[in-house]
Write a structure and sequence with these properties.
It contains five helices and no strands. The protein has one domain. The protein is an all-alpha fold.
């Protein structure tokens, strides 16, 4: 369970840091990008690890850690401004009133928490 929590934390931290770097002023686009980047990170990392025959739990943790370090170094170099979530909470609530976007957010959330067993 601790391994899953560590992997999920690294995955969300990497994806959200990359999304803030890509979309510094657009909160809703950044939140959607976070889910998309997290999914893409798992797919790309799984593919690369399987090519080398290292697709194991420890290999995935090391890979997630390397992705996080790479994105953190990029973010430190570019120094993006974090989203002003207090000021944008109304914007996010308004965007989530759209049924398509609400379903997408729930789907992304469930896909990140699905244990896969």
């Amino acid at each position: 369970m601790l391994t899953f929590a560590l992997a999920a934390g690294l995955l969300v931290a990497t994806a959200s840091t990359a999304a803030i770097t890509l979309f510094p002023r657009q909160v809703v686009a950044g939140l959607l990008a976070t889910g998309l980047l997290a999914f893409a990170e798992v797919v790309v990392l799984s593919f690369l690890l399987s090519l080398a025959g290292w697709l194991t739990r420890s290999g995935m943790l090391v890979g997630l850690g390397c992705f996080f370090l790479a994105v953190a170094a990029l973010a430190l170099r570019l120094q993006p401004t974090p989203w002003p979530l207090r000021n944008r909470a109304a914007e996010v609530r308004e965007a989530l009133r759209d049924p398509v976007l609400a379903v997408l957010v729930v789907t992304i959330g469930l896909s990140l928490t699905y244990p896969g067993r």
